[in-house]
Amino acid sequence: MDNKLFGVLFFCFLMVLVFGLNYITQRVDMDKVPQQKKNKYLTWFWYFYGVFYLFYGLSDIFFEGDFLFGTIWVVISITILILNYKGKVFSNLSK
Question: H helices of the chain, where?
Answer without folding.
Answer: 3-27, 35-59, 67-86
